[in-house]
Amino acid sequence: MKFNFEEQTLKYQKLGIVTPTKKMIKTEEQIEGIRKAGIINTKVLDYVSEKIHAGMTTEDINRLVQEKTTELGGNCAPLNYEGFPKSVCTSINDQVCHGIPDMHTILKNGDIINVDCTTIYQGYYADASRMFMIGEVDAEAKRLVRVTKECLDLAVKELKPYARLRDIGYTIEKHAKENGFSVVHEIGGHGVGIEFHEDPYIYHYGRKNTGMVLFPGMVFTIEPMINEGTRHVFLDASNNWTIYTDDGGRSSQFEYTVLITETGIEILAY
To answer: How far apart are CA 36 and CA 74, in angstroms?
Structure first.
C-alpha cells in the first residue's frame, strides 16, 4: 500500500507517538536532487581516499575537495557556512569534529583523520564523512575506526519505515559500549536535503522503541562520533568550531545520508 502521510500521522498520533512534520517528507523530485548531490559527494570522498597520504597538509585536503567538487558541478556547503572558513572539515586524532584545514597541520604516520564533506548540487544537499588511517596505525586506533563503522552500519541495518528514531542511537551506543568505547552525546545527525541542517535531530544514543516514528520520504544523516576514552568533549575557544575529547583520547566518525523508502532504506551519500 502506498504511503499516505495523513493516514499514517493520524494512526501514530492516536498511539501517542510523535510523527514527522510534512516538511520532513521529501518529494520524488527533491529526493532525485539529493541523490544527485550524494553521487557527487561520494565521488569527492573517493577522490580523497585515492590522494590522502602522510606528509600532506589538511589544507591540501581542502584544496582537493574544493577542486573535485567544482569539477563535478557542485559547491562545497561548509565554505562560509555560519562563518566556517573552509570547504571541508578535517578532524585528526582527538578532534571529534569540525576540524579546520590549515597549511601547518601535516598528516603523520599513525594519525587517524575524519574528512567530512557536504555538497550542494542544483540547490540540494548531501552530507557524508569517512575515516582515513595514515600509514602504520596502532591496533587500538584500527579497532576504534572499525567499531565506529560497525556502529553506523548496524544502525542502518535496523532502519526501516515506521521504525523509531531512538532505535538508531540505541544500536550505536550498545555496540560502542560492548567494545569499550563511548558515544559523544552533544552532537548528532540531522535532516538534510533542502538545507544543510534540518529537522529531525538524530541522537546517537537512547532507549529502544522510543522517539519519533520514521516515515517514507525522510532524509537525514547518521554520523556517530565514537571516543576511545570518555564521551565528554569541549569546544576550542580559539576558533569556536573544533570539538575535542576531554581526555585527549582519539575519536572516530563515519557519516551517511540516508533515505527512508516505502520498503526499506537507501544510502544517498557515504
So the answer is: 10
Chain center to CA of 145: 14
Rounded CA-CA distance 74/68 in Å is 9
Helices (H) and strands (E) in the chain, counts: 5, 15
Task: Please list the ranges in the chain whose pLDDT falls under 50.
Answer: none
pLDDT reported for residue 264: 96
Measured N-to-C along each axis, helices 28-51 and 58-71 cross at an angle, to the nearest 10 degrees, of: 140
Enumerate the β-bridge partners of residue 257: 221, 269
Using CA atoms, how far residue 40 sits from 45, 75, 269, in Å, is 9, 10, 8
Other Cβ atoms less than 10 A from the Cβ of 36: the count is: 18
The Cα 135–Cα 41 span in angstroms is: 25
99, 174, 206, 232, 267 from 183: Cα distances, Å: 18, 10, 11, 9, 22
Give one DSSP letter per residue of 163-225, joined into a string. Answer: -BTHHHHHHHHHHHHHTT-EE-SS--EEE-SSSSSEEEEE-SS--TT-SPBPPTTBEEEE--E
DSSP letter at 33? H
Enter the C-alpha cell of residue 79.
565554505
Q: Are 79 and 86 in contact (CB under 8 A)?
A: yes
Q: How many CB atoms lie within 10 A of CB 162?
A: 14
C-alpha cell at 118: 557536504
Taking the CB of residue 187, how many other CB atoms lie within 10 A of it?
16
* Structure letter (DSSP) for residue 27: P
Phi then psi for residue 65, to 5 deg, are: -65, -45
Q: How far is CA 176 from CA 162, 224, 250, in A?
A: 25, 10, 14
What 8-state DSSP symbol labels residue 137?
A: -
